[in-house]
Amino acid sequence: MDALDEIKDFLACETPDSWIELARQPESLAVLLIDHANCEKKAASTAMTLMFRYVDRTDLLNKMSRLAREELIHFEQVLAIMEDRGVAYEHLSAARYAAGLRNDVRTSEPGKLIDMLIVGAFIEARSCERFAKLAPHLDDELAKFYRSLLKSEGRHYQDYLGLAQEYAGEPVDDRVAHFREVERELVESVDSSPFRFHSGAPV
Description:
- This protein is mainly alpha-helical.
- Helices cover 71% and strands 2% of the residues.
- It contains 9 helices and 2 strands.
- The protein has helices at 3-10, 17-23, 26-53, 58-84, 97-102, 111-134, 140-148, 150-168, 173-188, and strands spanning 190-191, 201-202.
């Protein structure tokens, strides 16, 4: 089983075709690129936050340091594509997705760390799934770029999930199952907020 097949098994659902149809429209492309840049920047920030909060966990520090560097490289790559296409980087409101997942993160340790890592795994897995599903509908340059991200995003998902399992000291199946259902609802339910990279099914 390759990483993408593993990710599809990990997620409870695929991205709805209605989201793909909206994302592939020319008028959505600028928003897609801007929000993708935002996602890469936020992913780096999340990794850095974990590094500052859990300074005594060497494995986490090493994996999150590498992840943050890769996400910032991706951020720079998206910015370069935007510049080539004349897309201005501007403020966008956040999608409901990440906040919706983090609403169920426990507030006390070690549960908080375990849940944050599981949430990270779902965000990376969904990003990877969307890159793969969206790529065939994009122009050659963007399709090639999105496919190039699959390996690293898949590894990020594995890093987050592996750390959650390591630090829990016991099976995390119940927490993974809980967040899998929360994530499915955020992806499949109708989302009346503006189109974003991680938005749900469009109205």
